[in-house]
Please model this.
Amino acid sequence: MKKPFVFINAAMGIDGRITDWKRRQVRISCEEDLKRVDVLRAESDAVLVGIGTVLADNPSLKVKSEKLREERVKAGKSPNPLRVVLDSKARIPLNSRVLSTDTETLVVVSEIADRKKLMEIEKRGVKVLVCGKNKVDIQSLLKHLHDTGVRKLMVEGGGRVISSFLREGVVDRVYVYVGGIAFGEGVSLVEGRLNPPVRLELLNVSKIGKGIVMEWKPENA
Ligand SMILES: NC(=O)c1ccc[n+]([C@@H]2O[C@H](COP(=O)([O-])OP(=O)(O)OC[C@H]3O[C@@H](n4cnc5c(N)ncnc54)[C@H](OP(=O)(O)O)[C@@H]3O)[C@@H](O)[C@H]2O)c1
Model:
């Protein structure tokens, strides 16, 4: 199957948690790492999150650096990559920052999504893709993204989406920042059973700010 190059990027504490016990976003990485993440976003054609992340964090998923946005425009691209949200039941609040009309967004739903809500989303000028029966079908989505010109896809989380991508065997690289923090409870980097487990080869480790970034390659890629 033709698909984009898919990479995951996330930040976790030393206990593998990506949120605190109330599933709230807490600063795990440092300024230097946020710059690294911004470059990864700017180099991508699309960035993807699950509805859990939209509901918890309300992210804008845009490139923060003006310089990086200008470089994209000089290269003939839009200032920001396409934003993709996995949202089987179309639960996305219409005032979510990711639905701002200044940047392209694709809300990916399944056949069980409420048609009226889909029309409301589309009325805002946001594209909707129906892809899968009860949950978003990741393989079909990747084919669609490739067909529409996406060659590099950044998956930013959360834990359940990361788990699904790893389970499907479609991930080419995993970048994990490990920050000096521990939560003891909260959303894990990978939420949901992987059976069989996914094994990964370590390609690189580097110190950034007060933590480390690891680069892994899944063996099932
Ligand atoms: N530290 C970090 O780097 C980082 C990065 C991102 C997020 N986060 C945190 O992660 C937390 C959210 O993680 P989460 O696991 O609760 O939610 P999530 O992974 O963001 O979203 C999961 C939801 O996406 C929908 N979905 C649709 N199709 C799916 C598919 N094929 N596979 C998986 N999910 C699919 C499902 O809801 P429906 O069935 O309703 O569609 C599912 O419950 C937030 O609290 C956020 O702060 C941390």
Summary: The beta strands are 5-12, 46-50, 82-86, 105-109, 127-130, 152-157, 173-178, 200-208, 211-218.
